[in-house]
Each structure stands twice: as C-alpha cells, then as structure tokens.
Recover the amino acids of this structure.
C-alpha cells in the first residue's frame, strides 16, 4: 500500500474522489451536464486520447453516473446520458467552477456563467441550516463525528 | 501533449482541478480546514508516503492555500495554516462530502456531519439566485458563455 487509493479513509470526500477524482472524470461529468452525449463530442471538448476517454466513460457507466444508450441501429451507435447521480453533482461542479472564477480565472474573467433560467440572475452556492434556515458562513459550520465514526468498534 | 494537463481547457473547473485535483490534495485541504496543522498530524490522518505529503504541502503553499509558519525556534518547527483561499473551498468540500454521504456511504452512514454551530441543525449547500433570492434546483440553472469565451478572438 503506497497510498495510491483512499480505501483507508473513512470519509465521504475520499469516497467521492474514488468515483470522480480520476483525472478528466469531473470534466466529463461537466460536459454531460452541459448536454454533450456522444463519444466524439466529449473527445472534441476534452482533446484527450481515445483510450483514456473510453476508460473514463466505462468507469462512469459502471459507477452509475452515465447511462450508455443505443440511439441508432445499423450501425449501432451509442450515447452517454447523465443519471440522477450525475445531476446530483451540479452543486459540487458549480462550487469548483466558482472557486476557479474567484481564484484562478485569467484576465478575461470567467469562461462560463451559471444563471437562473427564470430571471437571469447569477447562481450562487449558499450554505444553509436545514433546521433554522439561516444562511451560514464557513465559520458557522461545525464538523461532528457521524454514526460511521461513533459506532466504530475500533 | 497526451492530455496530462488541463491547460487547453478554458474552464474554471479545470483550473480549480489543476490546483486541487492532484491525488490527496483535497483531503489535505479537508484536514487543514478540520484543524490539523503539523506534518505528522497530516501523515497520521492520511497514511501516505512522506515524500508525497511533502510534495502536496509544498504545492499548496506555492498556490497560496496553506501558509508555512514557524511556530517554534531551536529546533525550528513549522506548521501549515489554511489561508482564506483554502477556507473558500468549504462549500466545495462539503458538496463533495454530502454527495458521498448520499451515494457512496457504507451501511454505517456518514462518517462526519456538518452542523450549524448555532442551533445544531444539518448544514446543506443550496443553489440560490443572487438576483431574486430564490432557492434553485439543478434544472433552473442555465450555463451561458462568460466574458472569457465571448471576447475570445478564436
């Protein structure tokens, strides 16, 4: 064990990164959420080697984030559709994007802007309390051990 | 160019992953945000090879997410403190954690729970519109080209 996997980490961040932390994987998810469907579309967008893209797409299908669907017979052609599990990454993807906009964008500003389809306003990720409904800053967040840590016999 | 870097991607997600997408880096940020400071603390938490940890810590210092601070003279000892740029990843880290809680947690449930320090309620990431204040589902988010894409001469 040379620290190549996160298996020893009892942590939902580590488990998420086991699924989407491989190089290119989150950018494929981004593209799928933006509406790309076909192998060639992903390849044009990402410019990566075909074998790497094939590998990443297969893993995303195996992990249930993409569905491989036959959209044409003779010759058979397939496309990749994001599942609900992939759509559930939207907040994560937007949080990564907005952090990059704030801390790593070039002089031209942000490449893409997430807007509210209803009124055109900018979309933000806000931490809120599910109990009292208050909007929270990072200083108001306290991490407590959950059941998987407190019930652990170790 | 074998697709080993995201340099060709005009995308703030890709730029963020260039900084925090390396294996272990986000878990180091997690630990720093949880209060870990010293090399040995990070090593105990992550169980990775010392040279890998040294490399990741140096990169996080170079990228401005950690500050290396001398906390003791003779012998000189250093600790790593998260900067505002690291603290600004809290929403991203929590979004990754909660996705893992929902889709990849073991039978024992979530290892850690983010709570509101004020009332003890669960913390959630909510997409909101900065203009009209409405809470948004993923279907209400529309991606538009930003200045870096629309002004591009290419």
């Amino acid at each position: 064990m040379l620290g190549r996997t996160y298996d020893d980490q009892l942590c939902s961040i580590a488990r998420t990164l086991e699924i989407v932390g491989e190089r290119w994987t989150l950018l494929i998810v981004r593209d799928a959420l933006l509406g790309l469907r076909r192998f060639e579309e992903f390849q044009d967008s990402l410019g990566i080697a075909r074998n790497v893209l094939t590998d990443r797409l297969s893993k995303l299908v195996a992990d249930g984030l993409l569905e491989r669907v036959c959209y044409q017979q003779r010759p058979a052609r397939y496309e990749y559709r994001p599942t609900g599990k992939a759509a559930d990454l939207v907040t994560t993807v937007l949080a990564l994007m907005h952090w990059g906009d704030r801390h790593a964008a070039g002089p031209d500003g942000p490449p893409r802007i997430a807007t509210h389809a209803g009124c055109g306003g900018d979309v933000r990720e806000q931490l809120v309390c599910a109990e009292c409904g208050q909007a929270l800053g990072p200083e108001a967040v306290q991490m407590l051990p959950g059941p998987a840590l407190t019930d652990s016999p170790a």
In short: Chain A touches chain B through 90 residues (CB under 8 Å). The first strand of chain A starts at residue 66 and ends at 72. The two ends of chain A are 20 Å apart (CA to CA). Chain A has two domains: 1-88, 90-154.
